[in-house]
Amino acid sequence: MREPVFKHSPSIELLQWLAQGSLKQNLLRAIRLWVWLQSLYGDENSRIQLPEVWTYADWRDAFFTPTHPKGEKIPSLHDKDCPCTKTTGDWIFKGDMGIDESEWKKSLTSYCVTQSKKQTKSGELLIVDNDGKGKNKTRKTVDEILQRHLFMVTRRTLQKDLYILNQMGWIQRTNDKFQLKTELPQQDFLLNSKSKIFNLQELTFSNVNLETTIEIFSEPIGGYRRFYLEVDYIVPDNRDDVEETQNILKEAWNTIPIPPVKFIYKSAKLEKSVKLIVYPVCIYYARRAIYLSAFGQTPSENQEGWYNYRLDRIKKIETLDWSDTNIPQEILKYYPNDLWTPEYIREKISEAWGYDFYEERRLLVLRFDRNFHNNYIKGTFRHEQFENITYEEAQEYLLSSSPINSLSMNKFMKKFSEQDKYRHDYYYTVYYRDKDVNIIHRLRSWRPNGEVLLPWDLRQKLAQEAIQEVENYQD
User: 289 with 174, same domain?
Assistant: First the structure.
């Protein structure tokens, strides 16, 4: 069988694809992954000889010279012929795969400035040096990055590269052994990646129609993009900070076992910043911002459990080793066999309406004006448990609710039973997450045509808001 060949120059499109996120945050790793692919699947001049089933040590011995250190530390300059002494610029501008340096720099700058405006005062583009020593990542100019010794990194960094290649489908991993693929994975960067709106393989849409729309209109038509998705995103423009947080989380989720993370969180509830340690599970977009769902310490003092942390309020995030004595016992008791996956959160979200899946699950009974229902509610999807009920069923819920003997409740029940208009409206039930802000916003947006019948305390809360609203508009 003919062996597959990967022979592509390190274009910005290719590197962006290999970066699996922000190119500014992951440029060095993306270039190193490109070299990895040359060593595994390149032509006869660049491919190294490996057994059918091989280990990292097999690759190391075939790729580096015999004098290359085998320990955990970053190697020093030990042999001028060892590939670890080659700079990043040497790898991408010299040899058979070399490309024009000035054009490559121009393309990189153009792409990264389009993605983010953060530059030095002199206008030079800054790239994050993730391969630097220590936990504090530094920002360097493109020329400084090109002088970095690309493979003068720890064994752990190179091992992580292998895990990423496995997750991208380039190699097959079984424990600590690897095999090459007989067919290379789909190389999306060969498509017109600049015209792509989303990488559909990395996104999950709960709305099937939206996914279909993106698939149909992902390419320009008649020379113009014909589909736009405007996301209402309310957080301040600190894109680089959020990108860095996302990349650290992605690195954590690429690690086996997934480590806890420590960060400083600017809590709106406490009106101060607090240091927290959590086990991260997934991120999602909701309520016009991006959130991290995690288990561990929360902004509520002396309280541990599940919480959704807004990403733009997370500062100075870093991963921890499981041996760290600062990790709370509430997290440690689930390690290593009972840690959570995103499926756990998806299941919880499916149980009740709302993204704050850790809040109390309560029954919501709603009434909609007939005309409003037919125009805006009928045929729409709110939640899988959002169900239409009859007037009689709504009445039964009210009669069986508490506090049935309150004066206001009895007064309303008399009106609900006697006034004929209620019999011709539409009624729905759904379990929702109590205190979920997004649900409260939705109920407010339906006023005055959507009425909360139960729970009674939520009905009273919205009633007081409506009274205050009327007072605000009175002359």
Answer: no
